[in-house]
Design a protein that fits this description.
Elements lengths: L1 H4 L8 E7 H11 L7 H7 L4 H15 L3 E2 L3 E7 L5 E3 L40 H17 L11 E3 L6 H4 L17 E3 L15 H8 L7 E2 H13 L3 H10 L4 H4 L4 H22 L7 E2 L1
Parallel strand pairs: 7-8
Antiparallel strand pairs: 1-3, 2-3, 4-5, 5-6
Helix pairs in contact: 5-11, 8-11, 9-11
């Protein structure tokens, strides 16, 4: 919904279902032993197995947070399956990046750059377009409060997988030539699961705003224009924006997104526009990309 309101239009149609807890438990019992789980997740949760992790961080949390619906089921979002979708790092759009750290933030830091050529470090690189696409995602994630994205997590490309066939799913009987994305590779936005939580951590835009730094100046002009128009439409300040964002939301979804969370979105939207305004006053203004 936020994707459509902001006119980004990169998120596939998303629905809302209530998955019976018995179904989840049966799946965990049947397939849980074969699931590879990031050790850092288990460590953070204080458990040692996937099944224990599901019990603690899903079932126990859902019960404590009153997320278990009538009929003993847990609400979840579902998206249409998309063929030929691959991880960013398995595509031609990948950037020089070491997974599981913040090294990718450096591409958005203009500290020390020549004011006359602020994009010289990236503009002739084959992955320059990726930086601009990620900049758009940064702004979107910052506004909705999603802090669960990086180049190696929740960044997906449709088309042009450049890894071996088993990774690209091209060695399976189910793969059909007609499924291949017909145009150049492009970003699709999947999994905004941490949206509307609180702070959009692990986002160079968030870090720059928190530090009061004017050195983050990578934006899409189309995104800035849309955010500016939203701010103008939201009469009544933060409360007006909250009302605008909640328009047409199904009641089953709206109850999980509080008005307080939406007011925080309004404040973060103002943050983005404020940073962009500062950038446009600086020699760095060329970094505001159309």
């Amino acid at each position: 919904h936020a994707d459509r309101v902001m006119e980004v239009n990169r998120i596939p149609p998303t629905g809302w279902v209530c998955i019976p807890t018995a179904t989840i438990r049966n799946a965990t019992d049947t397939f849980g032993r074969g699931v590879e789980t990031e050790q850092e997740f288990l460590k953070d949760s204080g458990v040692s197995t996937y099944a224990e992790w599901i019990q603690k961080d899903l079932f126990d949390y859902a019960k404590k947070a009153d997320l278990v619906e009538r009929g003993d089921c847990i609400g979840a979002s579902i998206q249409l399956y998309m063929a030929d979708v691959h991880h960013l790092l398995d595509s031609p759009l990948k950037i020089p990046y070491k997974a599981h750290n913040t090294s990718w933030h450096r591409f958005f830091d203009l500290t020390g750059e020549d004011p006359k050529q602020p994009l010289a470090r990236i503009e002739h690189k084959p992955w320059a377009a990726t930086i601009i696409s990620i900049a758009e995602i940064n702004a979107f994630d910052y506004v909705i409060g999603n802090g669960d994205r990086s180049p190696n997590k929740n960044n997906f490309i449709v088309g042009k997988c450049n890894r071996h066939a088993s990774i690209c799913n091209e060695d399976t009987e189910q793969f059909r030539a007609s499924w291949i994305h017909p145009g150049p590779p492009t970003f699709v936005h999947l999994d905004q699961g941490m949206g509307f939580y609180d702070k959009p951590r692990n986002n160079p835009l968030y870090n720059a705003i928190k530090a009061g730094s004017p050195t983050y100046c990578h934006f899409r002009a189309s995104m800035l224009n849309r955010l500016w128009h939203l701010a103008q439409q939201a009469r009544g300040g933060h409360e007006g924006f909250a009302m605008l964002m909640s328009t047409r939301l199904p009641a089953t979804v709206a109850r999980f997104v509080s008005k307080s969370s939406l007011r925080k979105c309004a404040r973060r939207l103002e943050d983005v526009l404020s940073v962009a305004a500062q950038c446009l006053k600086q020699p760095f203004h060329r970094a505001v990309v159309a």
